[in-house]
Design goal:
Helices cover 16% and strands 34% of the residues. The chain has 184 residues and is of the alpha+beta class. The radius of gyration is 25 Å and the shape is elongated. The structure holds zinc ion (2 copies).
Length: 184
Protein backbone atom coordinates (compact mmCIF):
# COMPACT_ATOMS: atom_id res chain seq x y z
CA UNK A 1 0.00 0.00 0.00
CA UNK A 2 1.22 3.44 -0.83
CA UNK A 3 1.32 6.01 1.88
CA UNK A 4 0.00 9.47 1.21
CA UNK A 5 1.51 12.46 2.89
CA UNK A 6 -0.84 13.45 5.67
CA UNK A 7 -2.90 16.43 4.60
CA UNK A 8 -5.29 17.67 7.18
CA UNK A 9 -8.28 19.13 5.49
CA UNK A 10 -10.53 21.42 7.43
CA UNK A 11 -14.10 20.14 6.95
CA UNK A 12 -15.37 23.70 7.30
CA UNK A 13 -13.04 25.19 4.68
CA UNK A 14 -15.08 26.76 1.85
CA UNK A 15 -13.79 24.44 -0.87
CA UNK A 16 -13.70 21.21 1.11
CA UNK A 17 -16.52 18.83 0.30
CA UNK A 18 -17.77 16.41 2.93
CA UNK A 19 -18.97 13.12 1.45
CA UNK A 20 -20.28 11.57 4.68
CA UNK A 21 -23.90 12.00 3.59
CA UNK A 22 -23.27 10.13 0.36
CA UNK A 23 -23.81 6.36 0.69
CA UNK A 24 -20.79 4.43 -0.59
CA UNK A 25 -22.86 2.34 -2.95
CA UNK A 26 -22.46 2.90 -6.68
CA UNK A 27 -25.22 5.04 -8.12
CA UNK A 28 -25.97 7.00 -4.95
CA UNK A 29 -26.10 10.72 -5.66
CA UNK A 30 -26.23 14.00 -3.78
CA UNK A 31 -26.35 17.56 -5.05
CA UNK A 32 -24.91 20.33 -2.94
CA UNK A 33 -25.33 24.00 -3.73
CA UNK A 34 -23.30 26.54 -1.88
CA UNK A 35 -21.93 30.02 -2.13
CA UNK A 36 -18.44 30.40 -0.71
CA UNK A 37 -15.88 33.20 -0.52
CA UNK A 38 -13.28 33.05 -3.30
CA UNK A 39 -9.76 32.15 -2.21
CA UNK A 40 -6.92 34.64 -2.61
CA UNK A 41 -4.80 34.92 -5.77
CA UNK A 42 -7.37 33.36 -8.06
CA UNK A 43 -6.75 34.59 -11.59
CA UNK A 44 -4.25 36.15 -13.93
CA UNK A 45 -2.37 39.43 -14.01
CA UNK A 46 -5.04 41.45 -15.82
CA UNK A 47 -8.18 39.67 -14.66
CA UNK A 48 -9.05 37.81 -11.49
CA UNK A 49 -11.77 36.73 -9.10
CA UNK A 50 -11.67 39.21 -6.21
CA UNK A 51 -10.69 37.49 -2.95
CA UNK A 52 -13.75 36.90 -0.83
CA UNK A 53 -16.20 37.42 -3.71
CA UNK A 54 -19.08 34.96 -4.01
CA UNK A 55 -18.27 31.72 -5.79
CA UNK A 56 -21.53 29.96 -6.57
CA UNK A 57 -21.04 26.20 -6.70
CA UNK A 58 -23.37 23.42 -7.77
CA UNK A 59 -21.73 20.13 -6.89
CA UNK A 60 -23.12 16.80 -7.94
CA UNK A 61 -21.54 13.88 -6.08
CA UNK A 62 -22.02 10.42 -7.45
CA UNK A 63 -20.83 7.21 -5.81
CA UNK A 64 -18.88 4.99 -8.16
CA UNK A 65 -17.03 1.77 -7.38
CA UNK A 66 -13.69 3.44 -6.89
CA UNK A 67 -14.70 6.68 -5.30
CA UNK A 68 -16.83 9.73 -5.82
CA UNK A 69 -17.36 11.43 -9.16
CA UNK A 70 -17.86 15.15 -8.69
CA UNK A 71 -19.46 17.28 -11.39
CA UNK A 72 -19.05 20.92 -10.51
CA UNK A 73 -20.55 24.03 -11.99
CA UNK A 74 -19.08 27.29 -10.81
CA UNK A 75 -20.01 30.88 -11.37
CA UNK A 76 -17.58 33.55 -10.31
CA UNK A 77 -17.41 37.34 -10.62
CA UNK A 78 -14.40 38.83 -12.37
CA UNK A 79 -12.59 42.12 -12.02
CA UNK A 80 -9.86 43.28 -14.31
CA UNK A 81 -8.53 45.77 -16.74
CA UNK A 82 -9.04 46.03 -20.48
CA UNK A 83 -5.73 45.26 -22.19
CA UNK A 84 -6.42 47.97 -24.82
CA UNK A 85 -8.08 50.91 -23.11
CA UNK A 86 -7.10 50.11 -19.49
CA UNK A 87 -10.60 50.70 -18.21
CA UNK A 88 -12.04 48.48 -15.51
CA UNK A 89 -13.79 45.31 -16.53
CA UNK A 90 -16.35 43.54 -14.41
CA UNK A 91 -17.70 40.29 -15.72
CA UNK A 92 -18.62 36.81 -14.63
CA UNK A 93 -17.27 33.46 -15.69
CA UNK A 94 -19.08 30.13 -15.78
CA UNK A 95 -16.97 27.00 -15.68
CA UNK A 96 -17.47 23.36 -14.97
CA UNK A 97 -15.35 20.30 -14.34
CA UNK A 98 -15.78 16.64 -13.65
CA UNK A 99 -13.29 14.81 -11.52
CA UNK A 100 -13.05 11.37 -9.95
CA UNK A 101 -11.87 11.34 -6.37
CA UNK A 102 -10.69 7.86 -5.45
CA UNK A 103 -11.30 6.21 -2.08
CA UNK A 104 -8.19 5.62 -0.04
CA UNK A 105 -6.77 2.17 -0.76
CA UNK A 106 -9.07 1.60 -3.73
CA UNK A 107 -7.48 0.07 -6.83
CA UNK A 108 -7.54 3.49 -8.46
CA UNK A 109 -5.82 4.95 -5.43
CA UNK A 110 -3.13 2.27 -5.55
CA UNK A 111 -2.50 2.42 -9.29
CA UNK A 112 -2.64 6.08 -10.29
CA UNK A 113 -0.62 9.15 -9.48
CA UNK A 114 -2.00 11.94 -7.38
CA UNK A 115 -2.01 14.34 -10.30
CA UNK A 116 -4.01 11.94 -12.50
CA UNK A 117 -6.94 11.32 -10.21
CA UNK A 118 -8.08 13.15 -7.10
CA UNK A 119 -8.21 11.53 -3.71
CA UNK A 120 -10.75 11.42 -0.92
CA UNK A 121 -9.06 12.08 2.37
CA UNK A 122 -11.14 10.36 5.01
CA UNK A 123 -14.57 11.61 3.97
CA UNK A 124 -13.29 14.90 2.63
CA UNK A 125 -12.48 16.17 -0.83
CA UNK A 126 -10.32 19.21 -1.44
CA UNK A 127 -11.92 20.93 -4.42
CA UNK A 128 -9.66 23.95 -4.45
CA UNK A 129 -7.04 22.76 -6.99
CA UNK A 130 -9.69 21.80 -9.56
CA UNK A 131 -11.75 24.94 -8.93
CA UNK A 132 -8.64 27.07 -9.43
CA UNK A 133 -7.60 25.24 -12.60
CA UNK A 134 -11.08 25.43 -14.12
CA UNK A 135 -11.39 29.17 -13.49
CA UNK A 136 -7.86 30.16 -14.46
CA UNK A 137 -8.04 28.18 -17.71
CA UNK A 138 -11.24 30.01 -18.64
CA UNK A 139 -9.74 33.49 -18.20
CA UNK A 140 -8.45 35.45 -21.18
CA UNK A 141 -4.76 36.32 -21.03
CA UNK A 142 -5.58 39.54 -22.89
CA UNK A 143 -8.94 40.63 -21.54
CA UNK A 144 -10.81 43.36 -23.38
CA UNK A 145 -13.81 45.40 -22.31
CA UNK A 146 -15.50 44.43 -25.57
CA UNK A 147 -14.24 42.59 -28.66
CA UNK A 148 -13.99 45.74 -30.78
CA UNK A 149 -12.54 48.03 -28.12
CA UNK A 150 -10.59 50.64 -30.10
CA UNK A 151 -8.04 51.23 -27.31
CA UNK A 152 -6.29 54.52 -26.62
CA UNK A 153 -5.36 57.45 -28.80
CA UNK A 154 -1.58 56.99 -29.14
CA UNK A 155 -0.97 60.74 -28.90
CA UNK A 156 -2.92 61.73 -25.81
CA UNK A 157 -3.56 58.35 -24.22
CA UNK A 158 -7.29 58.94 -23.86
CA UNK A 159 -9.66 56.06 -24.64
CA UNK A 160 -11.10 56.52 -28.14
CA UNK A 161 -14.49 55.75 -26.63
CA UNK A 162 -14.29 58.92 -24.54
CA UNK A 163 -13.15 61.14 -27.42
CA UNK A 164 -15.31 62.84 -30.04
CA UNK A 165 -15.48 61.13 -33.40
CA UNK A 166 -13.39 63.87 -35.06
CA UNK A 167 -10.63 63.80 -32.41
CA UNK A 168 -7.23 64.45 -33.98
CA UNK A 169 -3.90 66.00 -33.05
CA UNK A 170 -3.38 68.73 -35.62
CA UNK A 171 0.24 69.41 -34.81
CA UNK A 172 1.25 65.83 -35.48
CA UNK A 173 -0.92 65.65 -38.53
CA UNK A 174 0.87 68.62 -40.12
CA UNK A 175 4.26 67.16 -39.26
CA UNK A 176 3.28 63.92 -40.91
CA UNK A 177 2.09 65.89 -43.91
CA UNK A 178 5.51 67.62 -44.04
CA UNK A 179 7.28 64.28 -43.84
CA UNK A 180 5.08 62.90 -46.55
CA UNK A 181 5.92 65.89 -48.74
CA UNK A 182 9.64 65.28 -48.08
CA UNK A 183 9.28 61.63 -48.88
CA UNK A 184 7.42 62.45 -52.04
ZN1 LIG B 1 -11.31 48.54 -23.70
ZN1 LIG C 1 -5.63 62.06 -28.79
Amino acid sequence: MREHPPIHLNPRAPLVLDTRDLPRSPGAMRVVERVVPAPKDLGLELIHVPAGADLALTLRMESVTEGVLVSAEIQAPLAGECGRCLREISDTVDVSFQELYAYEHSTTDETTDEDEVGRIQGDLIDLEPEVRDAIVLALPTNPVCRPDCPGLCPDCGEPWDDLPADHRHEQLDSRWAALRRLAG
